[in-house]
Design brief:
Length: 277
């Protein structure tokens, strides 16, 4: 389709129809199917599946892992992006490459790396076993795997934003006698707040929905180390479809909330974020 054809009303209508059809088939239809299957045996069966003991345990663990990993990734993201954007030092390019590493490594491979390090037969396994420390097949391993998968999101959102803003504001504040913490709190942070919120939102969504790495390190211990995605898999494999889709609907609702907040932040960030207002 040529540029002239696209500029016509018919060309734009065709492109819009293709986009809407694609979204309908690959996004809307599966989302509707989740809720239809979850409610196929009535609302009572739906709520019963959600308040079942193992389901509640999976929800609590998912929230706990997100509550631990997201704040830690915020700290890392702020520190890494501030160092990369505001200072020159040896190894900056290497640090940027390492931040992008989780995007290029399969989540399953990253989970296997933690098993190699902290598993019973891993490098640190004998020492951990001797000191009665559990990492793999326990909550610490799930948190570590989730942090590895999600730590780029905050940093990758803030690095280009801080680089675009430059160093003039911080240097002016320092020249006027402000301390490093005062400069960060009163100058840097207000300028990046919308980008930070956007990165946190993406990080939290990935933390709650992560499957591959968590599946490797969790051990699938029902009621103890199963997050919501893992619990859905177990229920589905047991042919308990209503319960599986009921828990999946919670993840779908989280996705919808994330999408809504993402759209709001994109609008707010797009208009005011660059100016820090």
């Amino acid at each position: 389709m040529t540029r002239g054809a696209v500029s016509t009303p018919l060309g734009r209508a065709v492109l819009l129809a293709i986009a809407l059809a694609f979204l309908g088939v690959f996004l809307v239809a599966p989302l509707v199917a989740v809720f239809v299957e979850a409610l196929s045996k009535g609302f009572a069966a739906y709520t019963a599946a959600l308040v079942e003991r193992d389901a509640l345990s999976a929800v609590r663990l998912t929230l706990l892992v997100a509550a631990i990993s997201v704040p830690l990734n915020i700290i890392f993201g702020l520190a890494a992006s501030w160092a990369i954007a505001k200072f020159d030092f040896r190894g900056k390019s290497l640090l940027i490459t390492l931040i992008d590493l989780p995007f290029s490594v399969s989540p399953v491979v990253s989970g296997l790396i933690y098993v190699l390090l902290f598993g019973a037969q891993g490098w640190f396994g004998p020492w951990l076993r001797a000191h009665d420390v559990e990492i793999i097949f326990a909550v610490p391993g799930i948190v570590l795997a989730t942090m590895f998968i999600t730590f780029p999101f905050v940093a990758r959102e803030l690095i280009p934003l801080m680089q675009e803003q430059g160093r003039d504001d911080e240097e002016a504040a320092l020249s006027l006698g402000a301390s490093g913490w005062q400069t960060f709190r009163r100058v840097t942070l207000p300028n990046i707040r919308w980008g930070l919120l956007y990165g946190v939102l993406l990080c939290n969504a990935r933390a709650m929905g992560e499957f591959g790495a968590v599946s490797v390190v969790s051990g699938h211990i029902r009621g103890k180390t199963n997050t919501m995605p893992l619990h859905v898999e177990i229920l589905y494999n047991e042919y308990n479809f209503v319960a599986a889709f009921a828990v999946a609907s919670l993840l779908a609702l989280l996705a919808l909330v994330t999408l809504t907040l993402k759209s709001i932040l994109e609008w707010r960030y797009g208009i005011h974020g660059r100016a820090g207002q």
